[in-house]
């Protein structure tokens, strides 16, 4: 007889191989760490050239975004991310990749409805809810700070 | 004329033949265990076209061209074309067949479309309302990714249950009974849904449909798995194949090592980073047309139940949290014109 959806859900969970959690976490830690080290290196270099901490941070962000966009365009970023997972997703590089990859993918549909509209399909929610959260945080700070 | 037996199965009394067939693939398919059997391999997955959708239509053109030229047929000799693919509004098939002038029946059965189109082509020929009918389906990794998942260059991790959409196409010309492979029976599947919602686990979503269709066919024809050399599912992959055997075991059906899956045959899962196996309309179609049909023609395989499975969800239904319904259609292909089971 056919199993119920609940029974089948259990069967399919049992049949599905698990992710290699420890390996994935280790690679994510190492790759994420390397990206942050590159960022810190760029930041220290900027500061040694006389930029303030704030300006150095801004330049570092621009540098990492550029690097991520370049690697995405060169068809390398997804190959690194396949192994690195959250290691490449969480830093600002992941955000840049999420903007550039749909822009590349949908350029066939033209610059308005393709690149323009689809560019935000992955990163858009992050921008929206990030902005909304910052407003809430700002209000809390204004009232209680 | 086809005779209905049981609730779901049609026996094809006139035993139409699959007269000719063609299969095309790309680089990853060429690197797989079946690479040498494809008629055409183009390592450039864009097939020289400016978009992935055009590349998929090119796959259709090439596989149909192969099927026609191998049988020395002209497009004018084909009475009907049954075709479908995974893209919205089946544009892979539409643009692929646009210039041929063959009466066109567009089908959507997701990855089950090869069995669906082959079943309909065989039924039309068996009923003598078509002399020759074409069945063709295709899929392309890149066009499927951009429609159902993420942009190609997006850096994400695929879960171990995910499958790799085959870049390939297969086409068959079905005609009046002449030589093996013969189409002896077809079973049209029902939509089955056991509540799987994970679009990265389509093998699990489709396995119940495959199990039901196989069980119904065996019951309708009073045959057993031992009566066949191979029971070939479309693209259940590793997870779905395991679940199929468990579901059939619950119905007291043991496939006794006769089960194979196109999604597991087409790639080397250890070497090719395809996780649970291949998928897509082109998976079942290209494995059938490159590897299985020639073996039936040569008599290496005698009786094969070809059961292509499809996951009938859309990006919209997935986003709205709907579960994934599956469907499986069965085509009984044989090297001999003497049927087993019900006479």
Keywords:
heterodimer; A: about 140 residues; mainly alpha; 8 helices; about 0% strand; extended; B: about 350 residues; alpha/beta; Peroxisomal Thiolase, Chain A, domain 1; 2 domains; 7-stranded mixed β-sheet; 6-stranded mixed β-sheet; 15 strands; about 35% helix; globular
SSE arrangement:
The complex is a heterodimer of chains A (145) and B (343).
Chain A (H helix, E strand, L loop, with lengths): L4 H11 L5 H28 L4 H21 L3 H8 L1 H4 L2 H14 L5 H8 L5 H21 L1
Helix pairs in contact in A: 2-3, 3-6, 6-7
Chain B lengths: L1 E4 L3 E4 L4 E9 L1 H5 L8 E2 L10 H19 L9 E6 L5 H7 L6 E3 L6 H14 L5 E8 L1 H8 L15 E2 L2 E8 L6 E6 L14 H20 L8 E4 L3 H14 L8 E3 H4 L12 E2 L1 H17 L5 E9 L3 H5 L6 E9 L9
Parallel strand pairs in B: 3-4, 5-6, 5-7, 8-13, 11-12, 11-14
Antiparallel strand pairs in B: 1-2, 2-10, 3-9, 7-9, 10-15, 14-15
Helix pairs in contact in B: 2-3, 6-7
